[in-house]
Write a structure and sequence with these properties.
Elements: H1 16-26, H2 29-38, H3 42-47, H4 55-62, H5 65-74, H6 89-95, H7 99-108, H8 123-130, H9 134-143, H10 158-165, H11 167-180, H12 197-206, E1 208-209, H13 221-229, H14 238-245, E2 256-257, H15 259-267, H16 269-274, H17 277-289
Parallel strand pairs: 1-2
Helix pairs in contact: 1-2, 1-4, 4-5, 4-6, 5-7, 6-8, 8-10, 9-11, 10-11, 10-17, 11-17, 12-14, 13-14, 13-15
């Protein structure tokens, strides 16, 4: 009777790359340095691949802050690499809810706040999709205020994304815009801006405006609108000004609209013009309730 042929099975030991990934998953910094000592070219081999989950991606997904900081010092280029899903380390961390982790890495390299991933999303776009901690959102905006101007490949700011996905984040964004007197529209000077005048007119008609109320700069709603009319971009608000000058045309039965809501509308002129109806309505509703 013929004997069955034996089959030789060769077992290859894990590569250094595999071991580094394992160290990243287990948050083992000592093993990381041991592996570097054994194979100093390991970073170059990983870095040669265009779209890859680097050890920094693994640490980011798990929220291993100190391991990730070591990686940032050892191989800074990993922080800007995208994986096969179009995500950088910061995108991946925010997708997994590790906002404090991201703030720690940004202290090492603040320019990472501008890294764009899939569909042109920056870290702020991912942050406002899920984060509900108002303090963390505000801290992020205070530390990196210019990121409010970042747009996706569809020309959407964080306001667009928050209006669709996260009402809590939208409230924080609007309150932050109010407190800092920041204006998204100011970064659009090279574009022809036309405010949705009809939307503002309907809002003013449907909500009773305290025409004499003043803000922290002693400006009334009329002052704000007049100031916008004389700004650097084209906003037609003549009808809005006329309505404010003739308060008897407002519905006496409707409740008052907060003065800063008008400020927000003027600041976000571009956003309201290009937003889908649902997102625009959400922004206006939340602005009124803030």
């Amino acid at each position: 009777m013929a004997q069955p042929e034996s089959v030789a099975i060769t077992i290859h030991p894990p590569s250094t790359e595999d071991n580094v990934m394992g160290a990243s998953r287990s948050d083992d910094i000592d093993t990381l340095y041991q592996l570097i000592g054994e194979d100093v070219d390991v970073w170059d081999r990983i870095n040669m691949r265009k779209f890859v989950d680097t050890p920094l991606h693994i640490a980011a997904a798990a929220g291993h802050t100190y391991f990730a900081m070591e990686m940032m010092y050892l191989q800074p280029s990993f922080a800007t690499k995208l994986n096969k899903d179009g995500l950088s380390t910061l995108h991946l961390a925010l997708q997994n809810g590790h906002t404090r982790f991201v703030l720690s890495l940004l202290k090492i390299n603040g320019s990472l706040v501008s890294v764009k991933g899939k569909m042109g999303y920056t870290p702020l776009h991912y942050l406002v999709m899920k984060e509900t901690d108002g303090d963390l959102l505000t801290e992020f905006l205070n530390d990196y205020p210019d990121c409010i101007h970042h747009v996706t490949s569809r020309d959407e700011t964080a306001l667009h994304v928050a209006a669709r996905n996260n009402q809590t984040a939208l409230k924080v964004l609007l309150r932050w815009l109010r407190r800092t007197n920041n204006s998204i529209a100011r970064c659009r000077k090279n574009e022809s801006l036309t405010l949705r005048t009809g939307m503002i007119i309907r809002l003013i008609k449907d909500l009773r405006v305290d025409i004499k109320a003043i803000n922290s700069k002693s400006s009334t709603a009329l002052d704000i609108l007049n100031g916008q009319a004389q700004g650097d971009y084209n906003i037609n608000i003549k009808k809005c000004v006329d309505i404010l000058r003739h308060g008897d045309g407002l519905k006496a039965s409707a409740r008052k609209i907060p003065l800063f809501c008008l400020e927000v509308i003027c600041q976000c002129a571009y956003e309201l013009r290009v937003m889908p109806a649902d997102s625009g309505n959400a922004l206006l509703v939340v602005a009124t309730l803030c």
